Every structure is written in C-alpha cells, then in structure tokens.
Amino acid sequence: MKKFVITIAREYGSGGRTVGRMLAEELGVPFYDRELMRLASDESGISETLFAKADEKIKGTLLWRAFRKSYSGELIPPDSEDFVSNQNLFQFQAKVIRELAAEESCVIIGRCADYILRDMDHVLSLYVHAPMESCMERAREFHPHLSDDELRRLIQKIDKRRAEYYQYFTGRNWKDADNYDLSFNSSELSWEQCVQLVKAYLDIKMGE
C-alpha cells in the first residue's frame, strides 16, 4: 500500500483513540496523540508545558473573545510578543503534523489534523461517535467514582471544548460529516470490527 495518514476526530468515550492505537499497531505505523506537543516543543523551542496548557482550551481566552481565525500555516517569529500565543502554538503543531504526513504513514488523533491535511490525497479522515449511554459506559472505566449525572456533564464538557477548539482554528463544525471521509457509530461494532472497517475503507481509497 502507498503511504497513508489516518486522522481521527472522536467524541469522548466513543473509543476513537482506542481504535486509532489498534489501527497503528495492526498497520505497523506510528501513533501520534499527545506526542505531537513534545514534537512541536522541540520544533519551536517553546516549553511543552505551554502547549499542554493551551491544548484544546481556547474558549475564555482574550484571543477567543477578540476574534476567530482559521489555520493559515504562517508562523509568528520569536521576536514577536505573540510568539507563545495560542495561535502560534497551534501553528507549530500544524507544522509538525504536515511534516509527519509528508514523511511517513501514521495515525494522528485530534488536533484538527483532518483540516490541516485536507489538501493531501493520501489522508483518510475519520470521525468516531457513539450515543451518550455508550460513551458513559466506556468513560466509566476511567471515572468509576462519578455519578451518572457527573459523568454525563464531563462528557458534554469535553466534547464542547473539542468542538470549540475545532471551530476556532478551522471555522468549521466539528460534527459535520462533510469534514471527514468516514464517520461511524462505534457502539454498533467491536473494537476489532471498527479496525477492520477502517482498513477496508483505507484499502479502497489508497489501493493501487
């Protein structure tokens, strides 16, 4: 198979990250999630802590209230006061994502990778979702002490933050199926079936 990149946007508790990791293992390619912040830190010289603080936490900042600007790819130079702004931190992550996509096959979780790589033909973009009850069941494994109401609010809060992050940097609706090659309900399938579904789609799109 030719070089490929799989990007995965996912609702919290849908298992998108699990599917992504299993895909990477089965296909024998690198898996990138929070590792992207370390790579962006190495690229920019900016502390990884700053990337972590800005990661998917845009709403409420002065930058959010002032304006919304989609990704342009233009980096702010080190001598600028905005060098460590949320906008520039995102631009460095985007630069790393594009470099990885140009160099190797891999699986990338979140961080608007589908939008950043939208002009590349060898990219398969996914959106993984599931009904709330299914997401709650899976999320409970990581939050066993939360009540049903608390768990539901946590899921809604995380998904709202992800949607705002995506809209801020892309100008698009995170849940819009038009943004992706394939959207699917993971609650109807086992993890292995999810992997096989994506592999089948990948073979069709990327096959010779």
Task: Write a compact overview of the structure shown.
This protein is 50% helix and 11% strand. With 208 residues, the chain is an alpha/beta fold.
Structure description:
The longest helix has 23 residues, at 148-170. This protein starts with a strand and ends with a helix. The relative contact order is 0.22. Helix content is 50%, strand content 11%. Helix 1 packs across helix 9. A five-stranded parallel sheet has the order 2-3-1-4-5, with helices on both faces. The chain has 208 residues and is α/β, with parallel strands linked by helices. Residues 58-71 and 75-84 have low confidence and may be disordered.
Portion in strands: 5-15%
The ordered H/E elements are EHEHHHHEHEHHEH
Distance between the termini: 7 Å
Radius of gyration: 17 Å
Number of beta-strand segments:
5
Unreliable stretches: 58-71, 75-84
Main structural class: alpha/beta
- Main β sheet profile: 5 strands, parallel
Instruction: Give the overall shape.
Output: globular
Please report the number of helical segments: 9
